[in-house]
Write a structure and sequence with these properties.
- By secondary structure, this protein is α+β, with helices and mostly antiparallel strands.
- The chain contains 6 helices and 4 strands.
- Strands 1-4-3-2 form a 4-stranded antiparallel sheet, with helices on both faces.
């Protein structure tokens, strides 16, 4: 999904570069592009390889939308400080947004098999889904699965796009690389290639009564 602020004609080229860097830091490019955007296909329908509560995938995907929208807003606000300083701002804002959206029995967040921020380690039930997507890259549709005790989990993949290489590829601008190293000394989120699994969005939600 391409953030609205990156769509054609909405901002100038320099601001566009800054938005790109912030979007990469927030993980806003997913494998599910917005239906109707030029050059995209409709977003995939959430799928499951497990028995799920009725409508769980649709409810979980809907719960992720405010999370993604708030991340986009944080992205725009960060532009005023430039891409390097904005990465630092995102380090604080993204966890705050996840905590704010985790309410009424719902928990959500982002994670990866190669973390930039160790605080984003996957929940126990998410890690096997990531491992399976790494082993079977041909099957990366969003998934739901029962967690027991009246709860369901949902996971969406985040696939690396060409512009993501600015923050997660093999060649990162020196000033940005230095900032990332300072903020994330345990960073493992570089050396990716286009199309690889960068990470996931995940949601835990209670089953309906």
């Amino acid at each position: 999904m391409t953030p609205r602020c990156l769509r054609s004609g909405s901002i100038g080229p320099l601001a566009r570069v800054a938005v790109v860097v912030l979007a990469l830091a927030l993980g806003l490019w997913t494998s599910a592009p917005t239906a109707g955007e030029p050059g995209t296909t409709p977003a995939p329908t959430p799928a499951s390889n497990e028995t799920e509560a009725p409508g769980a995938a649709q409810r979980a995907a809907a719960l992720l939308q405010p999370f993604k929208q708030d991340l986009q807003q944080a992205l725009r606000e960060g532009l005023a400080r430039g891409p390097v300083e904005a990465v630092a701002a995102c380090r604080l804002r993204a966890p705050e947004i996840a905590r704010a959206q985790s309410r009424d029995g719902v928990r959500l967040g982002r994670s990866s098999h190669r973390l930039r921020n160790p605080a984003n380690a996957p929940p126990d039930w998410v890690a096997p889904v990531i491992d399976d997507w790494l082993t079977h890259p041909e099957d990366r549709a969003p998934r739901t699965l029962p967690l027991g005790e009246g709860r369901t989990g949902y996971v969406e993949p985040i696939l690396l796009q060409p512009l993501c290489l600015s923050c997660h590829g093999d060649a990162i601008a020196p000033d940005l690389a230095a900032r990332i190293e300072h903020l994330y000394p345990e960073d493992r989120a570089t050396g990716f290639h286009v199309g690889e699994l960068r990470g996931v969005f995940w949601v835990e939600l209670p089953d309906p009564d």
